[in-house]
């Protein structure tokens, strides 16, 4: 299960977007999509973002939400977490952090492990990549599911 890591060009693009009076420079649709992601701590999927956006803006279409997600991701305003099976979730927290995801119910939580950052050098040596970021995703069973 790999997380798709965005290049640091995104943070420069984000700066540019943010300079235009932050979210004011976004279309109303993009602003709503951004708000849904920032307010959620559940790392919503595209269809969950659509449900949240439609509650605020009933006329919004799935295609618009989908395009807005791509725009916000490319602008570095949200982080897309991709999984091997092609599914994605969206995170409004841009600071480096790690995740744990429940294999049974999909519950996903944030945590931060300083050791993860220290693994960056070793991972770079093994892969011969220039390191930009390392994120850890723990796959397991959440507290609710492990007691069932
Ligand atoms: Zn669970
Ligand atoms: Mn997160």
Features:
three-stranded mixed β-sheet; Dna Ligase, domain 1; Arc Repressor Mutant, subunit A; two-stranded antiparallel ribbon; alpha+beta; binds zinc ion; 148 residues; 5 strands; binds manganese (II) ion; disordered N terminus
Explain this structure:
With 148 residues, the protein is α+β, with helices and mostly antiparallel strands. It has 2 domains: 9-91, Winged helix-like DNA-binding domain superfamily/Winged helix DNA-binding domain (Arc Repressor Mutant, subunit A, Orthogonal Bundle), CATH 1.10.10; 98-146, Dna Ligase, domain 1, CATH 3.30.1490.190. The protein is built from 6 helices and 5 strands, in the order ααααββββαβα. The strands form 2 sheets. Strands 4-3-5 form a 3-stranded mixed β-sheet, with no helix packed on it. Strands 1-2 form a two-stranded antiparallel ribbon. The radius of gyration is 16 Å and the shape is globular. It binds zinc ion and manganese (II) ion. Residues 102, 104-105, 107, 141-142, 144-145 line the site of zinc ion.
List the helices and strands and how they pair.
Elements: H1 9-19, H2 28-39, H3 46-56, H4 62-74, E1 79-82, E2 88-91, E3 98-102, E4 108-111, H5 114-127, E5 137-140, H6 143-146
Parallel strand pairs: 3-5
Antiparallel strand pairs: 1-2, 3-4
Helix pairs in contact: 2-3, 2-4, 3-4
Bound molecules: zinc ion (ZN) and manganese (II) ion.
Strand order of the largest sheet: 4-3-5
Question: Any idea what the CATH superfamily of the largest domain is called?
Answer: Winged helix-like DNA-binding domain superfamily/Winged helix DNA-binding domain
Based on CA atoms alone, the radius of gyration comes out at 16 Å
N-to-C span: 25 Å
Beta-strand content estimate: 5-15%
